[in-house]
Amino acid sequence: MTDFNEESRTENQAVKKPVWKGFLSTVAAGVLGSALTLTAVPYFQNDTPQATVPEKNVQAESSSNLDVTPVSSSSNSLADTIEQASKAIVGVVNMQQQNNNPFSQSSEAAESGTGSGVIFKKTNDAAYIVTNNHVIENASEIQVTLHDGEKVTAELVGTDALTDIAVLKISGDVSASVMEFGDSSKLRAGDQVLAIGNPLGLDLSRTVTQGIVSAVDRSIAVSTSAGEWNLNVIQTDAAINPGNSGGALINTAGQLVGINSLKIAENGVEGLGFAIPSNDVQTLINQLIENGKVVRPYLGVGLASFDEVPPKYIQNLPNDVTSGAIVANIDPDSAAAKAGLQVEDILVKIGGKKITNSSDLRKHLYSNFSIGDKVKIEFYRGGELKTAEVTLTSNQKVN
């Protein structure tokens, strides 16, 4: 059984886990938080006295003259909605090669962690699942358990560490439902939502917790295997526990409005869970299916933040220069190399936007510019301010 601690994400993961900064260094879903206690809304009966009409004033009428409006009983209850949505939820098991015998060269795939996933597309011979990247990262094999208990091996279609989204594919005629996407841009604080996933592993598969949208458009700083990033998320107080990663956050219509990913795990903190908005997820999965990864502008430099730079590299800078990113290495075939940037150059602006650190440059590059844009970069070399114009290329390798 996998152990949990305060630094894991919401999947039951015993492998590499992202590390958080500052207060949000505790952002993760690997802490067993207290279950959300919902306040029941009481049902009040109407005790107002009813007016009576003297019997002598009442004239009997034929029932055929009554204006009768039938009351429909066909509307789905919340339980019906959840039952249908749960058929699209799967368990995801990260299998990794392990060799417990030091005298043997062979190794076997063993369970390293579990999470959740959502079936969002089916064809005649396959089904596609969206989950978190950190659920399947470093897996040598990925196993998926369907709602009826059937276990199948999944193929990794594509993944993106920065946004923590991955797409899996299972072949065959899959007897499972497809979850419809909702419009996450319509969410407001106070909207009712439900989280469905596999907390603490597959023994508690398709557990449902209820809450509200606490806030929208939150930005959470995360450390990923691809570098620092600010993740756009929905905040909810629906209970999220280890194993919920990659599971669904749905609205009361049963539509997918988010992929559960994170939770603040600090003593005394409850009800702070985060999900990746469905509108962002749709954009990402389309790219992952088409390219196997998210195609972004590519500068071609490895960077270190200003506060990580040894003093000897910044001693010639003007006193008012206190932030930036130093070039640690350059791809010789990149746009940066072609524009004349060199190792030890200290970048301070890109497209007129100030660079405070290496993650700041990445944020500006990916959020404000596109492939093919000509971008002016300002940098210091030997204490002298210089500029270079870079034509951004794609991070997609051409075969």
From TrEMBL:
GO terms for molecular function: serine-type endopeptidase activity. PANTHER family: PEPTIDASE S12, PROTEASE DO-LIKE 8, CHLOROPLASTIC. InterPro entries: Chloro_Bact_Ser_Proteases (IPR051201), PDZ (IPR001478), PDZ_sf (IPR036034), Peptidase_S1_PA (IPR009003), Peptidase_S1_PA_chymotrypsin (IPR043504), Peptidase_S1C (IPR001940). This is Serine protease Do. The chain crosses the membrane at residues 23-44. The keyword Protease applies. SUPFAM superfamilies: PDZ domain-like, Trypsin-like serine proteases. Belongs to the peptidase S1C family. The keyword 4Fe-4S does not apply. It comes from the Bacteria. Residues 288-359 form the PDZ domain. Residues 59-77 have a biased composition (Polar residues). PROSITE patterns: PDZ. GO terms for biological process: proteolysis. The lineage of its organism: Bacteria, Bacillati, Bacillota, Bacilli, Bacillales. Residues 54-77 are annotated as: Disordered. Keywords: Hydrolase, Membrane, Protease, Serine protease, Transmembrane, Transmembrane helix.
